[in-house]
Write a structure and sequence with these properties.
The complex is a heterodimer of chains A (about 425) and B (about 450).
Chain A lengths: L1 E5 L10 H15 L3 E7 L10 E4 L11 H9 E6 L9 H27 L9 H18 L4 E5 L4 H11 L3 E5 L3 H5 L5 H13 L2 E4 L2 H11 L6 E3 L11 H4 L7 E6 L8 H14 L3 E6 L5 H10 L6 E5 L4 H9 L2 E4 L9 H7 L4 E4 L12 E3 L4 H13 L1 H16 L3 H15 L1
Parallel strand pairs in A: 1-2, 1-5, 2-4, 5-6, 6-7, 7-8, 9-10, 9-12, 10-11, 12-13, 13-14
Antiparallel strand pairs in A: 3-4
Helix pairs in contact in A: 1-16, 3-4, 4-5, 5-7, 10-14, 13-15, 14-15
Chain B lengths: L1 E9 L22 H30 L5 E5 L1 H10 L1 H12 L3 E3 L9 H4 L1 H19 L5 E3 L7 H9 L4 E5 L2 H4 L7 E4 L6 E5 L1 H8 L14 H10 L6 E7 L3 E2 L2 E2 L4 H15 L2 E4 L1 H7 L5 E2 L21 H12 L1 H7 L2 H10 L2 H6 L8 H5 L7 H23 L1 H12 L2 H44 L1
Parallel strand pairs in B: 1-2, 1-8, 1-11, 2-3, 4-5, 5-7, 6-12, 9-10
Antiparallel strand pairs in B: 6-7
Classes of the chains: A alpha/beta (about 425), B alpha/beta (about 450).
């Protein structure tokens, strides 16, 4: 079976959970013998790249060495499209970013598109036009490649999926990793909502990453429940051994928040819970790892609460730093206000760190060995943190069974379920 | 006869390196050695060295009628001795002429006058000894960090035997009074006050090379003309500048050195002014009136209050935590701990956390290693957190070893023990916090000066 997949980021250029999920899922599918053509928009228009290009797996600069990885890259095609699409951007934020980019690249790119695609629209003035441009290119790709099914990840790629379906007549599966309601809370952007809804309506099947998201799709977007299937995410098994060598040098216990510091992730509840814990026990340090639009507000808040020497900020962490952070942590907290899935607690558990997660997260549907609290219930959150830190039995239990639980969440299983969804529409 | 009182501040802090959470408890190297060396050498080359040479030339030319005063902070002394000792030699040469006065200040250019009286006194005395060692002169004039002054600070300074203190000629304190007289402190009339003429001083510091300014360029003739416009009865014009103004803030190309080099000649030939130093002035002149300052003033910005260093959440938290550990620091009495304790007190760290400079740009960005006050705060607090660990470890090594053992053994007992362990700790910390509370009103009062000003 051959799948034409539209995504928006792929390792090593990932900014969040979506890239990790796409990578894991694709890997799982390749293991099960599926061919994947993966199309991604390029994050920033480098001058040296033409607007559209096809990259063979071997051309992609990556430092994977083991044979398994090689095999993986042999089986998938990786296509990059010159576009300014950046994940997690609000249309408003994008506008300002795009303005800068456009001045430099627009002329060149425009001529290319006139010639190749007879594309008459304007380039890069706003996010919506970018999305439609991606769709236009998608339809062209659809005529050039043979495939059995189309798979689109999240709203930026839905129009692309729809376009490919119209051209090829092949079934479309869209994969909802997050909805506009998760990202923006009450300030839902109407055009984004519209694109999402259109995608779900046009799709033959909608895959959601959790039942929580499935409910949102059914209730808020009015999609027929029979069309919507939940396939939970998984986590890559940890190959890294260096975590074992990192020794914690702090006397105090460390409680960690790791993620974007934005409304969706609930950083403020973490701060308030930290304040409650520190009132009872001074021998704890809290760490907020990540950056985002609420970061400065969090810094002011912890100063106001006089926690400056017990609450620390690391900024955005990547790669080995994340491993170090987990290795230093005694509790991991994910207080997300709305989290369609949430892979990071699984990564924490993989590193033997007990987790406290919000009930408003998709991952809470599948985890047994984690403490689940409502994101707004800072008392319960503080209580859970304090409990894990002080009652050794609890901690041991979580570490032992948590690791086991996570190791059983394999991407192959998720990929198998996705293939089942494909089969139902073929 | 009128007097020009020319005073220069020499200060460079120990800037912190990027010190991350991962470093806490692991390494205790807090300073950006490369950057600090680079800056002190650059400033020495562009400013201190040529300026010292010029001062010496002027003294040689005009004999004892040209006089100048320096306030040199401890960190500046240390860094110059280490990386540009020829600057210190220059100051020593100047000291030997007898035409130069050195003032006292807090050793680490700290805000200790607002944080802790004990530390304030300790630092003043340490600095006084250091100046005496290096320049063979025991300061009798005091210049507090950033010219911060209020009645209580004045009282403390007077008790330490200083006869004169320099501060800002803040309009909201002086009202209709002119800064161009000798005053005395109302709280302790023995302490004479010399107030900065901020208009004429800032003309040089900030506006000297500003071509958008209607008075640009300032020539010595023009400046002497301004001096001559000072009303006849007024006695002293206090020009308090940063020494870096010469050559660093105002580059050589702006003509700043020529301006100063020709100033004394023009003053002597075209005016009735003479140069003098603070301690001379407080003997020569009679104080015209007492001045009372209830809320601390400083030289900074338009407000002339403390808000460049204290007042926002970030600054208050950092400041409170820093002075909250004073007792523990003094109890552990290790040279490296005391050294870091002093360096962390430098006012610069709090200046970097100022959120005002979103509007007050230019001046605050100068020498600032951070992109935002938030970054400054995060970095400082990481360093401070590590420092607190060191202080606590050194404080009670014996006790700690015991409690560690008990934690690893039986669990239930350990729990009870950790509870009892935390109790004395909170007791110990309760004292400093009440101390902060006692200090706090002073800071708060400072912020309330604004509405007062409007009235």
């Amino acid at each position: 079976m051959r799948v034409l997949m539209f995504g928006w980021e792929f390792p090593p250029h990932i900014t969040g959970g979506l890239g990790t999920a796409c990578f894991g899922l694709t890997k799982g599918m390749v293991k099960l013998g599926t061919d994947v053509i993966f199309v991604v928009p390029k994050a920033y228009g480098d001058e040296s790249h033409p607007g559209f290009r096809l990259i063979n797996a071997s051309d992609v600069a990556m430092d994977f060495k083991d044979s398994e990885q090689q095999e993986f890259w042999n089986k998938i095609k990786y296509i990059e499209i010159g576009s300014n699409l950046v994940p997690y951007l609000e249309p408003e934020v994008f506008e300002t970013l795009a303005e800068k980019e456009t001045r430099e690249t627009s002329e060149k790119t425009r001529t290319i598109f006139f010639r190749k695609f007879k594309f008459s629209g304007k380039y890069g003035k706003n996010l919506m036009q970018e999305v439609s441009r991606y769709a236009l290119i998608a339809s062209s790709i659809a005529t050039q490649y043979g495939f059995d099914v189309i798979h689109s990840h999240d709203w930026l790629t839905y129009p692309a999926g729809i376009a490919a379906k119209k051209i090829s007549g092949k079934p479309l599966v869209i994969h909802v990793h997050a909805t506009e309601f998760d990202r923006s809370g009450k300030n839902v952007n109407a055009s984004v909502f519209e694109i999402e809804q259109k995608g779900m309506q046009e799709a033959d099947r909608v895959i959601t990453v959790s039942n929580l998201t499935r409910q949102i799709v059914i209730e808020k977007y009015g999609i027929n429940p029979e069309k919507v299937v939940t396939v939970h995410n998984a986590v890559e098994p940890s190959y890294r051994h260096e975590t074992a060598t990192i020794r914690k040098h702090l006397k105090e216990k460390v409680v960690t928040f790791l993620g974007r510091v934005t409304y969706q992730k609930g950083p403020d509840y973490f701060v308030e819970a930290a304040h409650k814990v520190l009132k009872r026990d001074e021998n704890v340090r809290f760490v907020m790892a990540g950056s985002g639009d609420l970061l400065n507000r969090m810094v002011r808040r912890i100063a106001k609460l006089k926690m400056g020497t017990k609450f620390h900020f690391t900024g955005f962490l990547a790669g080995a730093e994340v491993d170090t952070m987990f290795a230093m942590s005694d509790v991991y907290v994910m207080p997300s206000v709305s989290e369609p899935f949430g892979i990071s607690p699984l990564e924490a558990m993989r590193s033997n760190v007990p987790v406290v997660i919000s009930k408003q997260s998709g991952v809470s549907e599948i985890l047994k060995h984690a403490i689940k609290v409502d994101f707004w219930d800072i008392d319960a959150m503080a209580d859970a943190i304090y409990g894990i830190l002080h009652y050794d039995g609890l901690q041991k239990l979580f570490v032992q069974y948590g690791k086991e639980e996570v190791d059983n969440l394999k991407w192959e299983n998720a990929a198998y379920n996705v293939l089942e969804v494909y089969k139902s529409v073929l | 006869m009128k007097f020009i009182n020319l005073c220069f501040q020499v200060h460079q802090p120990y800037r912190l390196r990027t010190y991350r959470f991962f470093n806490i408890g692991l390494d205790h190297q807090y300073y950006d050695d490369y950057q600090n060396r680079h800056i002190i050498q650059r400033v020495a080359e562009r400013s201190y060295l040529p300026a010292n040479r010029m001062m010496l030339d002027m003294i040689r030319e005009f004999g004892s009628s040209f006089k100048v005063t320096f306030s040199i902070s401890g960190p500046a002394l240390e860094q110059l001795l280490q990386h540009a000792p020829e600057v210190i030699h220059g100051f020593q040469e100047l000291a030997a002429t007898g035409c130069v006065e050195f003032t006292g200040e807090t050793y680490s250019h700290s805000l200790a006058s607002l944080g802790s009286k004990e530390e304030f006194i300790r630092q003043i005395e340490k600095h006084r000894d250091r100046i005496n060692d290096l320049f063979n002169q025991r300061p009798t004039t005091f210049r507090n960090t950033e010219l911060i002054f209020d009645d209580q600070i004045g009282q403390t300074v007077a008790e330490l035997g200083f006869s004169t203190m320099l501060t800002e000629g803040a309009k909201h304190v002086l009202g209709w009074k002119s800064p161009n007289f000798l005053y005395c402190s109302e709280a302790n009339p023995k302490l004479k006050l010399l107030l900065r003429n901020f208009r004429l001083s800032d003309d040089i510091i900030f506006r000297f090379s500003n071509r958008d300014w209607s008075e640009w360029p300032i020539t010595t003739e023009k400046f002497v003309n301004w001096l001559n416009k000072v009303p006849e009865k007024e006695e002293v014009v206090n020009l308090f500048l940063n020494y870096e103004t010469l050559g660093e803030q105002q580059r050589e190309e702006t003509g700043i050195f020529d301006f100063f080099y020709t100033l004394p000649g023009a003053v002597f030939s075209d005016s009735t002014y003479n140069f003098s130093t603070p301690s001379e002035l407080s003997e020569k002149l009679q104080p015209v009136a007492p001045v009372s300052v209830l809320y601390p003033i400083s030289w900074a910005d338009e407000e002339k209050d403390l808000t460049a260093w204290l007042g926002n959440e970030l600054q208050d938290e950092a400041f409170g935590k820093l002075y909250g550990i004073e007792k523990d620091v003094m109890a552990c009495d290790k040279p490296d701990v005391i050294r870091d304790w002093e360096r962390l007190q430098a006012s610069d760290h709090f200046y970097y956390m100022c959120t005002k400079w979103f509007s007050d740009g230019e001046v605050h960005k100068y020498f600032n290693p951070y992109n935002s006050p938030y970054e400054a705060f995060i970095n400082y607090m990481n360093v401070l957190s590590d420092f607190i660990i060191r202080v606590n470890e050194k404080d009670k090594p014996a006790k700690e070893a015991k409690s560690k053992k008990s934690v690893t053994k039986p669990k239930v007992k350990a729990k009870i023990k950790t509870k009892t362990k935390t109790k004395p700790k909170t007791k110990g910390k309760a004292k400093p916090t009440t101390k902060i509370a006692a200090r706090k009103p002073r800071v708060k009062r400072a912020t309330t000066t604004k509405p007062k000003k409007r009235n």
